[in-house]
Amino acid sequence: MSRCAVVLLVLLAVQGSRSIIWPCEDSSDCKAENAHCSIYGYCQCPAGYVFSTDVTRCLPESAYGVACQEAVQCSHMLTGAKCEAGVCTCDSDYTYVRGRCRKLVDLGQPCSDDIDCFFSHNRESVVCHRGSCECADGFYRRSSNVCRRRVTNGEECLVHQDCDGDNLRCVNQRCTDAAAQTAKSLQDVAIQTSQSLEKPHVEGSPAKAPPAPKTRDAETNTDTAAATKRVQISTKRAAKECERCRKFGDPCVEEGVECPEVPYTVCRMGQCHCREGYYHKEGRCMAELGEYVHDGQYCEPGTQFSNRRCTCRNDQFYDNNMRTCLKSALGINTSCTQQSQCSPYGAAYCPSVSPKRCTCHPYARYDEATELCVAKDGYEAYCERDGDCALANARCSTEKTCVCKPSYYYVNERCKAANGGECETAADCAFEEAVCQSPSVQSEDESVEPAEPKRCSCGKGHYYQASGNRCLKEAEQYGDECSVDEQCQPLLGELGQCIEGQCQCDENEHHFKDGKCNMKIALDARCSKTSECFVDGDDQDNVECRNSACQCKFDYSPDVERQKCIRPSGKNSSDRPSALKVITLLLTSAAVLITGSALRDAYYG
């Protein structure tokens, strides 16, 4: 096998790594764009770059939330990392922290290190104490999985609950003593009034200009002047550094050891790389939020250096990329871009689709007094599985809330059975006018032992409406009040309808006869029963279904054009045969008898 073939097989076996086993004597042997020959004699990409999938070029490693062309650019974040929609991100059950995607555990769950605990956008807020995740000292547990710092008078806050002290309220994102503030305001008014009386303003004299307000950065909510000063200090320090000092990406030989003169680096594969939790920027390894540093110059502008860590102010939150601070949303139903901005308000989240406003989770309700989304109890409480629901006949929904099981309704703080559901008494049924009895019990005598479990149903003379979960009284006579057709049909048949709130027949297509609504079938049309046959007027008794067709009764003549059965003109008013008809009938009978006698005589003669 040729040397090229061997190299190709090795490349395919280890593609995606920063350095691959591609033997070389000098950089001219490395055909991938921007690759060079390492001190170990194999081709590699510069620090901060990775070979493309086809090993033809070196692509930059993409940080969390940064654009990517191939998944290999996100591979430095290890398990759970992916290039989705052209951006490096983590799977839904992973969180980006300390340079990689990690599965974190909730408060109260087992852990081995602080980094194992879900930190709700503030790394300082949680610790792994005695093998369990819990809120750090100085923090309190606000909701199911959020720890917030306790602050005192004058410090940054977001909700009243942040302020630790009697009479302290969060006003304009500062903990304020409400009583003292009121007294001070009254005192200031009195002083201003007194000064205005003592020194009246002289017309034409220039008024003293108020001090210029501090400018704040719109994205990070920090003082622009402070950020500028920090950048100037960093620049001065950088100017003092020697030009020959080792830099990020320079060669090194002591694997796993920090490169001298380059803080927060590690020698990996013969190159100086940033340690996990630190990232390269302008030749320096900068710290992600929550990581320890010895100097504030290794924290991004807009963050703060506190307790030897890069952090955010108490009224700000970590961006998902763990590099910048985000200002909080102003409360529930106010604009947001990321989940962290809504986390101060209890069980709240920022929707993934517009309009993006902080919203209470389905398992929480908004409490105006605390300005928080407070978890519900019982119905719609938070759950992970059915067993978490304390409410009887409840289950855990896909939205992780406790809801009633199928065929149960939430009524009077209970999940009660719908029609057909099992019950002990009528109080277990979710609708009025319900009875609880065994379907096999025909007698209303409660002493009869049921053969089957009792079930909820409507009482006699009532109809169960599933859409409204209620029992409706069935009609007892034509024209009774109703709200749905089914109330009318036991009385009027399947063609009965509820029209304008009354049980009746649709006179355009049906007619009421023999106590039911029937189809209108005209004379000479096919029929199956007499009640279907219809003629105009009040002569409904004069038509019948005979020989499978609607016909007038005997002694009535059909008028098909007018759809009527007409009494013959020969009939008198008493409905008796006329004298002429009687004579004609007698003569016909006599002729029949004479003819019959003559035929008999001829036959025997």
Automatic annotation (TrEMBL):
Residues 195-225 are annotated as: Disordered. It comes from the Eukaryota. This is EGF-like domain-containing protein. Residues 43-58 form the EGF-like domain. Keywords: Signal. PROSITE patterns: EGF_2 (PS01186). Residues 1-19 form the signal peptide. InterPro entries: EB_dom, EGF. It comes from Anopheles gambiae (African malaria mosquito).
